[in-house]
Each structure stands twice: as C-alpha cells, then as structure tokens.
Write a structure and sequence with these properties.
By secondary structure, the chain is mostly beta strands. It has a domain of about 160 residues: Clam (outer membrane lipoprotein receptor (LolB), chain A), CATH 2.50.20. Helix content is about 10%, strand content about 45%. The protein is globular and about 45 Å long.
Length: about 230
Amino acid sequence: MRYFLHLLALLSVCILLGSCSGSSDKKDGNNQKDSIVSLPDKANKPAYARYDLKSGIITFKASVVFMDQEMILYFDDWGLKQRTEINVSVMGKEAKNVTITDTSFVYLYDPDKKTGTRTPIDPKSPDNINFTALNDDVIKTFSITKEGEEKVLDRLCTVYSMDYKKADINGKFYIWNGIALKTETSAKGISIKMEATKIEENVSIPAEKFIIPKDIQFKTVNSTADSPNGIKI
C-alpha cells in the first residue's frame, strides 16, 4: 500500500510544474467500467504475497493540492514487484515521476532529470500494511477499523479507516484483493485522493518495467523525511 510514497511523487511533480495553487484542465477519459475477469487460483498464492491477484495494471485519477494527475500502477508476482508512473500536464508543461519497489528499497526518480532517491523499505511503516494479512497488532498500531463494503468499478471493496496519530495520517481505503482501488487520505495536513479508473487483471507485464535504470543518479535516504519534500511517514 505504497500510497504515502506516491504522495511524495505527486507533490514532486506538482512543485516541478509550479502549479500547486492551481487546478488542472486535464480531462478524465478513463471513467468507463471494465468487465470483470475470473480471479486467480488463490490456493497457489505464495506466502510472501501482498495481493490476492498475481499481476495487474491499474490506472488511477489522483488529486493532490487541487491538481489532478494520472497514476498507473503495474504489479507482478502477487505484488512483490511494483512500478508506479505519475503523469501530469498543466499549462503546457509535462512531467513524470516513477517509483519501482523491490524486496529492499523503493526507488523514486525523474526519468528526464536522471535523478532520484532510494529509500529502504520499513516494515513498520503504514506504507507497508498488508490488507490481505491484517492482524491484531497492525490493527491496534494504526487504529484500523472496518467500515463496511462499497463497489469501485464494479469490484466489491472492503472499506477501512485508519487514524495513525503518531504520524498524523488518517483516511479511508477501499480494498479489493489487497489493493486500494480508492483512497481518501491526509498526511501532515496534505490531502490526497486516488480512485481507479481502469483495471486490467492478470495481464502479462514486461520484465523491464521493474528494472532499475542504470543511468539514474540515486541518493540513498533513510526515510521519506529526508526526501526532497520531507513528508515523514
């Protein structure tokens, strides 16, 4: 559930374009509902799985600081491999940020500037909550409450709320197969909303999508607090 790291990426793009106080005229052309395909055989799901779906591509409409952006999530190997692309076009300016997650680090980079950060994965971070394996300790630590059920793109989601006062993070998460198809969150007073507009289930994803580019200069940071926009989670 790396949506707070996505918040950093969204803010990076926003600041780059100098439009955090404005709104985007970008049109949302992906609001169509997709047909549901059969779910994978969960009996074959490995112990390390983060999701109940082996692979997928999910397109989101994201809104942060009054600006709409498009975010595309690619995942494979039951969520062990993940890539997120954030694209925005405002007032003739375009920007893109990419995050790639492996078993140890989250890489956040600008493919045009060839610079980025490498952050160790913190298993105690709210970014690493596995909604397919919630336990009493996680529920208590992050003050997670099951609120009910609601459909997003015809997928029935379990709705959870979280109020993690230690990091000033709260919000709602609409979880389907362990994946947040919709989020309404606030981190350090900064609001971010994301909602899936297109879902492709169990699709083949090229291996190169998850390869860390060799031409990017990564700075290793200990936490997101040390990232350029410094939002500690």
